[in-house]
Amino acid sequence: MAFDGITIANLVHELKNTIEGGRISKIAQPEKDELLFTVKNYRSSCRLLISASASLPLIYLTETNKQSPLTAPNFCMLLRKHIGSAKILEISQPGLERIIEIKLEHLDEMGDVCRKRLIIEMMGKHSNIIFCREDGTILDSIKHISAQVSSVREVLPGRPYFIPHTVEKLDPLTVTEEEFAAAMKSASMPVSKALYQKFTGISPVIGEEICHLASLDGDQWANQLNDLEQIHLYHTFSVLMEDVKEGRFQPNIIYEGDFSEWEEETDTAKSLPDPEISDDPELAEALAAEKPSAQYDWSEAEPVEFAAVPLTCFSGSRYRVRSFSSISQVLETYYASRNTFTRIRQKSADLRRIVQNALERNYKKYDLQEKQLKDTEKREKYRVYGELLNTYGYELKGGEKELVCMNYYTGKEVRIPLDPQMTAQENSQRFFEKYNKLKRTYEALNQLTLETKAEIDHLESISAALDIALQEADLVQIKEELMEYGYVKKRRSSDKKPKITSRPFHYRSSDGFDIYVGKNNYQNEELTFKIASGNDWWFHAKGMPGSHVIVKSQGKDLPDRTFEEAAALAAYYSKGRENDKVEVDYVQKKAVKKVAGAAPGFVIYHTNYSMVAIPACRLEEVH
Fold first, then answer.
1. What burial class does residue 166 get, using C-beta atoms within 10 Å of its C-beta: 0-12 exposed, 13-18 middle, 19+ buried?
2. Which of 21, 186, 255, 271 is deepest in the core (most CB within 10 A)?
3. 58 secondary structure, DSSP code
4. pTM value surpassing 0.90
5. Which residues form the NFACT RNA-binding domain (predicted)?
């Protein structure tokens, strides 16, 4: 996630080819530290988003517009006054610094040609957008930095602009082999760290990548490299910098996820004949229908890194590279995806904690109840002792510690422990009292255990729904369910109830049948008892929490392939999605019944078919 000098270089290269030479037609400031330029060039227009946010500085071309405040901020008004229709003369990057400079030409109030400079510094929390005269005098900036805030440089109107050099670093685009060797010899640190500590614009991940390309251990100390290793490292470094200077970029995003199913489909696709080479139109059509799509649904994988150059250091079956034609697409896609994952995790974290705490309490309660229930198993023994004492007690003379007699229920001899201070009648009564107490305990515990187990099943189903949730809207119904069952404090009557926008997943089978998958218990209930009709098919992972999967049969017999695809979805959207195989029950909806008084989505069925499915989502969602 490094917005480093190489990424900036790729951005400058892209902006030169798109907006350099164009004219600014619109300037907006949607956020406090964000600008949105609309630039017209060669009869086309595009938008340039620039954010100087301390937490997420960004700059990229986008097609998305943003709503602006009714009253434009002062900085935006100043830019509109000076460069509202300015021509972009040049876009450049000093060295490999994380800085983009845009040179602009415009007409002043007198009609004279003037030039200005817009400088964008992408330096983490120190990011800024600075508007200067041609001579470098600052006119204004989106963030004002006074001497009290920074002792290095003031960023205020009237002050001269300069690039702060707080750390002396070498320019990787111009460094010689001798300078490179000297820098490595003086670095008492690992090689990967030395690369980004000694050279401008190099990020930690690029440092690791250079070491990986040079077949060196990034943790090896830089000052301990031998001459051969150092020469090899420099040449690897130089090749990468040459690509940067020549504009040979390959924007990409590294994703982490389970790609095994996709790989199988891709291998299958490669092994089948190409329909385009067939002379027979009917055969070509049949081959095209059989040939699986090698497209992967990237929304299900998590973006972990992006770069303007290939990152070969991310290897292994869990990582895959997605290439893009532009670095702007990379940045927009990466941060949109990353924000989605981060936001969902943050939003669901509290709900997960509530569910997990409730589950742990119920697990402990259930174990204790099971233990107590096991203790009641000896109640029948006390009843038999009482009856045997009533039968054979006449043989006792008093003071005995046990009675040895024949158990007429089993035909075996039994020894009954006695209290020598009590009569046979009193001992018998004592055993019956123990029996009745344990019987009452058993009856109460038997009901409590069933209730606790039902609560555990309910909470586990909610936990499974949280695993499925991909959007904030999916969490709204889950929170509503937790409120309804008392796990989350209910909203006040004056609070507005949130709008439910989440809908079940909708897929279409290879044979054209609509398949619906519930994302939570409420949706499972709705799918099974409101959307599905009697002859539709119902699928669910056997013996574990998961989604209800409905296949609309359209009054037809389903082909085997549709059964397999629906079962794979039921396995995938269940607690067993990480398993190699999952047993799935399936039955016509008319055989599925609602459990009276049970939580939403809990059903019973007495006759069903079963099949073993590999958890997978091979179908594209229908929107």
1. exposed
2. 255
3. E
4. no
5. 505-597
pLDDT mean over 495-504? 81
**What does the pLDDT read at residue 287?**
45
Would you tell me how many other CB atoms lie within 10 Å of the CB of residue 90? 13
Chain length of the chain: 623
DSSP string across 385-399: HHHHHHHHGGG--S-
Nearest to 462 by CA among 581, 617, 601: 601
- Which residue in the block uniquely carries the two structure tokens 């997978």? 616
Compute the distance between CA of residue 339 and CA of residue 358 in angstroms, rounded to an integer: 29
Tokens 């959307």 sit at which residue?
531
| Statement: residue 141 has pLDDT above 90 | yes
Per residue in 292-324, pLDDT tens? 444 566 666 778 889 999 999 887 777 888 899
Residue 574 near residue 544, CB atoms below 8 Å: yes
Q: What is the DSSP letter of 275?
A: G
Question: What is the CB neighbour count within 10 angstroms for residue 434?
Answer: 17
Q: Which amino acid is at 427?
A: N
Give every CB contact of residue 486 below 8 A, 6+ residues apart in sequence.
none
Order of strands across the sheet that contains 252-256: 302-307, 252-256, 319-323
Per the listing, tokens 């009253």 go with 71
Distance in angstroms (rounded) separating the CA atoms of residues 401 and 563: 69
Instruction: Give CA 524 to chain center in angstroms.
Output: 23
* Closest alpha carbon to 5 in 182, 206, 163: 206
In the chain, what is the straight-line distance between the N-terminal and C-terminal CA atoms, in Å? 31
Name, in order, each residue with C-beta under 8 angstroms of 120's C-beta and a sequence gap of 6 or more: 50, 52, 59, 99, 100, 101, 102, 128, 129, 130
Contact 155, 143 (CB under 8 A): yes
By CB neighbour count within 10 A (0-12 exposed, 13-18 middle, 19+ buried), where does 173 fall?
Answer: middle
Neighbour-count burial for 180-219, b at 16+ CB within 10 Å, e otherwise: bbebbeebeebbbbbbbbbbbbbbebbbbbbbbbbebebe
Provide φ and ψ at 423, rounded to 5°: -80, 170
Task: State how far the Cα of 78 lies from the Cα of 591, in Å rounded to an integer.
Answer: 71
Inter-CA distances, 218 with 30, 108, 307, 518, 603, Å: 42, 54, 19, 47, 56
How many whole angstroms separate alpha carbon 377 and alpha carbon 400?
27
Q: How many CB atoms lie within 10 A of CB 82?
A: 19
CA–CA gap between residue 549 and residue 592 (Å, rounded): 12
d(CA 499, CA 483): 15
Q: Is the pLDDT of residue 253 over 60?
A: yes
When pLDDT is averaged across residues 449-458 and rounded to a whole number, the result is: 91
CB 290 within 8 A of CB 272: yes
Q: What is the rounded distance in angstroms from the CA atom of residue 304 to the CA atom of residue 231?
A: 31
Distance, in Å, from the CA atom of 581 to the CA atom of 157, rounded to the nearest integer, reads 67
Residue 451: how many other CB atoms lie within 10 Å: 14
